[in-house]
Design brief:
Length: 233
Amino acid sequence: MIDDRVAIDAGSLATSVSDAQRENIRDVLLTHAHLDHIAGLPLFIDDLFANLDEPVRVHARREVIEVLERDVFNWAVYPRFSELRNANGPVLEYREIGANDEFGVAHLKIRSVDVNHKVTSSGFVVEHDDKSIALSGDTAEMDAFWELINETEGLSALLIECAFPNDLGDLADISHHLTPDRLARELDKFRNKDCPVYVVNLKPMYREMIIAEIRSLRLSSVEILEVGRIYEF
Ligand SMILES: [Zn+2]
C-alpha cells in the first residue's frame, strides 16, 4: 500500500485495509496473477460496489488481465465486474501496462520491467516527487530488473522477494522464486550498496528459517519487511 491510495497487489486487500484506505484506494497495480497476489480483489470491489463513484482501476499486463477475466471474474467464480455498473458508472476498469513501460497511477510515476517468475510478472520502480522505491514482485534470478534499478538515481528502498529457504532450492527452481543464497547472488548485481533492502514474500511456513538464513549471510543494508508496519521513504 502506498500513501493509503495505491495498492500494489491485492492478496489481502479486502481483509487488511483500514476504512480510510478502503475509501481512498481506487488504483491497484498487479505484479502478476497468482492467487496470493489477487485474492482480495474480488471482495474489495464487491464491498465497495454500490458506493463507488469511480471505478477501481486495475493496472496490469495483458496476460494478467486475461487470467482475471477468464479464471476469476468469469461469473462462475465471481461476477464479471468489468461488465457491471452501479448507479454512478463502471465499477472495474483495466489499464493494460507493457513489459517495459512508463505510466502514471494516481499521483505516482511507475516504470515496469518483466521479471523471472513462472507466469508473466512485473517488477516496478515507483516514483513520487524526488523519491523512488523498487519492488521485484515474485521472481527468480533477474537481469533487466537490475539494469533498470541500477540506472535509477537516489533509490530510497528496494523490496525483493525471498520465498523459500536454501534447502528448498529445487522447489524455488520449479516455481521461480529466490532462496537466501540466491538472493545474495542477486544483490551482488545491485550497484547501490547503500540503498536499504527489505525482503518480502517469505512463505509463512518457512519464515523463521528464511530469516535465520538471511541473517547468517550478514548482508549489510538488508532487513526483513515487517508486515503491518508503516515505512516512510
Ligand atoms: Zn507468484
